[in-house]
């Protein structure tokens, strides 16, 4: 059977490493997992209990393509609680994880061949999803002096139809200030380019609160997920916030591509939003792990580690990600410690 050229995307190396680690575990090896970006904590207890009740009392059939109304309402309240914003629930669309939101956003907003800017280094799947949709990725090499985030001056002359930005970023962990984010959004507006903000790490912050693009403009596409702060990576449920005139466009695509996000995951997500006490306890553990890693890195270098600015990335027993001076290529390093294998996906500067 023939394969399409647009389907010839690069593998998501993290998942290949995860599969290799699973094979090693099946052979009796003890693996310390640090290869994949997920909390070591489960979905909140109250959320799992709510799902148990829902399974016993309902059929959990299809939901509307836009998602459960109660969940969309509760996410609207989250924007009020976290950012002081009033976001109409009608603009909120529940998706099969942030990955489903990326597919919907790219498909709804861009046409074949459109040029989409992404700061590098970045979440590698952006590029591969864009390729699979016959969109052109324009890599913008970020610099340490700009905290590994794109800046308006770098967008000149690129003929972009859109710009994808993450704050907190993956893998650098840096966050955009209000003024930096505003500058990028305004530049995109001036260029008639769509601004997409990946905000899946919001809620996991240590030194400063992350700024949402919605605090600056309603004419943006914001993507978020229950994976990180809410500890629901495998449940595959996320959301997007789009302008009013984009809702029906995205809804039609969602109806045909996904029908709906998993009903069980939506029920669990709704209940998870009422479990802030447990989630804050998780965050305290991540913060302790983060400090442990920073202290160890400082000791290994023999001098203080210069962080420069507030950094924000989640760390847990199974996934420790912290903000280091990172750039260029990533590679896989497997360190064998007696009979244990430490699986890492480090990003570092090649000198």
Quick overview:
With 351 residues, this protein is α/β, with parallel strands linked by helices.
Give a verbal description of the structure.
Helix 2 packs across helix 8. This protein folds into two domains: 13-43 and 276-344, no CATH class; 45-272, Type I PLP-dependent aspartate aminotransferase-like (Major domain) (Aspartate Aminotransferase, domain 2, 3-Layer(aba) Sandwich), CATH 3.40.640.10. Mean pLDDT is 87; it is low at 304-351. The protein has helices spanning 13-26, 45-57, 69-83, 97-109, 125-132, 178-190, 247-257, 263-272, 276-301; strands at residues 30-34, 92-95, 115-120, 136-141, 162-166, 194-198, 221-225, 238-241, 333-337, 340-344. 39% of the residues are buried. The chain is globular and about 55 Å long. The chain contains nine helices and ten strands. It is of the alpha/beta class. A seven-stranded mixed sheet has the order 2-8-7-6-5-3-4, sandwiched between helices. A three-stranded mixed sheet has the order 1-10-9, with helices on one face. A hairpin with a 2-residue loop joins strand 9 and strand 10 (340-344).
Are there runs of 5+ residues with pLDDT below 50, and where?
Answer: 304-351
Silhouette: globular
CATH topology of the largest domain: Aspartate Aminotransferase, domain 2
**SSE order in H/E notation?**
HEHHEHEHEEHEEEHHHEE
Question: Per DSSP, what share of the residues sits in E-state strands of 2 or more residues?
Answer: 5-15%
Task: Kindly report the spatial arrangement of strands forming the biggest sheet.
Answer: 2-8-7-6-5-3-4
Q: Span from first to last CA?
A: 44 Å
Summing up helix and strand content along with how strands pair, one would put the structural category as: alpha/beta
